[in-house]
């Protein structure tokens, strides 16, 4: 399960970089992030690029650090349902670590998808040739669905079984 979440995380990282480079390449010299007609806020293409990369790196490094620290989390700091089962032996704790790490990587994937959506939005809004033909509203629905699905691993912790594919009784 952890491998699948890491694969999706890597795909979302590559997707973000593709969306960022595409929006950066198509943008005019100034990007308008305006509030209204009288009080517009503009940044240069370079400031947009470096700001987006900084946000991307900051949050992704934070998520990777949290995913790696989950393994060393003491029992006192685990506030999870069915805590007695998950901490009963090494195998259950290993399964719990896998679930929590996958959850963190999937959360990073959701954040990257949101950043992809923002890059596409600003890329279209500030296109140098003003040729906006791509309908982007379906991306916002994808982000909402992914954000809602972040609560699903919490419900997985209510099932007192380490491996759901294992048919043996515990």
UniProtKB/TrEMBL annotation:
<keyword id="KW-0812">Transmembrane</keyword>
<feature type="transmembrane region" description="Helical">
    <location>
        <begin position="138"/>
        <end position="159"/>
    </location>
</feature>
<keyword id="KW-1133">Transmembrane helix</keyword>
<feature type="transmembrane region" description="Helical">
    <location>
        <begin position="103"/>
        <end position="123"/>
    </location>
</feature>
<feature type="transmembrane region" description="Helical">
    <location>
        <begin position="7"/>
        <end position="27"/>
    </location>
</feature>
<feature type="transmembrane region" description="Helical">
    <location>
        <begin position="47"/>
        <end position="73"/>
    </location>
</feature>
<protein>
    <submittedName>
        <fullName>Uncharacterized protein</fullName>
    </submittedName>
</protein>
<keyword id="KW-0472">Membrane</keyword>
């Amino acid at each position: 399960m952890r491998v699948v979440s890491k694969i999706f995380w890597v795909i979302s990282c590559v997707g973000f970089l593709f969306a960022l480079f595409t929006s950066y390449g198509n943008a005019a010299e100034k990007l308008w992030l305006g509030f209204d007609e009288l009080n517009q806020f503009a940044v240069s293409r370079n400031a947009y690029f470096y700001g987006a990369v900084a946000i991307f790196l900051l949050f992704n490094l934070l998520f990777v650090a949290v995913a790696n620290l989950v393994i060393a989390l003491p029992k006192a700091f685990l506030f999870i349902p069915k805590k007695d089962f998950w901490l009963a032996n090494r195998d259950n704790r290993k399964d719990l670590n896998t679930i929590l790490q996958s959850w963190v990587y999937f959360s990073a994937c959701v954040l990257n998808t949101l950043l992809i959506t923002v890059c596409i939005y600003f890329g279209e809004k500030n296109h140098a040739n003003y040729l906006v033909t791509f309908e982007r509203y379906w991306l916002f629905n994808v982000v909402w669905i992914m954000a809602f699905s972040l609560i699903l691993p919490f419900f997985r912790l209510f099932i007192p079984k380490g491996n759901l594919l294992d048919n043996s009784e515990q």
